[in-house]
C-alpha cells in the first residue's frame, strides 16, 4: 500500500510504501529492468524488497521511472537534477521525499523499544531531561529520526549525534503532521532547522522539505 502525504509546498512530494510484496512482484510493477537486474543479483531478498519498493514508490510520486544515482557517501540524486531526493527504509516500510527546488532529507523508523537501549549514544542531557512523560518511547524515536534526517541532509559521513545535533524541547503530537526545531554544531554556521514529523501506529517519520 502506498500513502502519498499532503504537503504545504507544491514543489515537494512525500510518499510512504508498506513493503508487503516479494521482490519479483515489485519488479513486475517496473519497466526498465535493465536498470535494476544487475544490482539485484548482489542483494538478499529483504534488501531487494526495500530497494524495489523505493523505485515503485518513486514511480507513483512522479508518474515515471527515474534511475537513482548515489554519491560516494551514499546520498541519492538524479542525473538530470529534476528533483532533489531523500530515501529511507525501516522494517516493513520505505519513504521517499522529492523537491524541485532545494535539498531534502527524510527518515522513517519502525516503533520499537530497542531504541531505549541506545539512547545514551544519541541523546544529550537536556534532551533526556525533556523527554515526554506521556510518550517517552515515541519521543525518543523522534529524536533519533530527526538526527538521522539531519545527518542525511549533511551528506552522511562521521557525525556525533549526541554533541553535534540538538533537538529543542517539544511535546510529540500524534495523528497530525507538525514540527519542532533542531540545530547543529557540526559546522561553524550552527544552523537552525524546522523538522516536520508524523507519528502513526507503526512508525515515526521525520523530514526536511
TrEMBL record:
One GO MF term attached to the UniProt entry: magnesium ion binding
Keyword Transferase: yes
InterPro entries linked: 4-PPantetheinyl_Trfase_dom (IPR008278), 4-PPantetheinyl_Trfase_dom_sf (IPR037143)
One Pfam family linked to the record: ACPS
Entry keyword Transferase: yes
Record keywords, A-Z: Transferase
UniProt cross-references to Gene3D superfamilies, sorted A to Z: 4'-phosphopantetheinyl transferase domain
Ranges of residues in domain 4'-phosphopantetheinyl transferase: 104-162
Protein name: 4'-phosphopantetheinyl transferase domain-containing protein
Lineage: Bacteria, Pseudomonadati, Bacteroidota, Bacteroidia, Bacteroidales
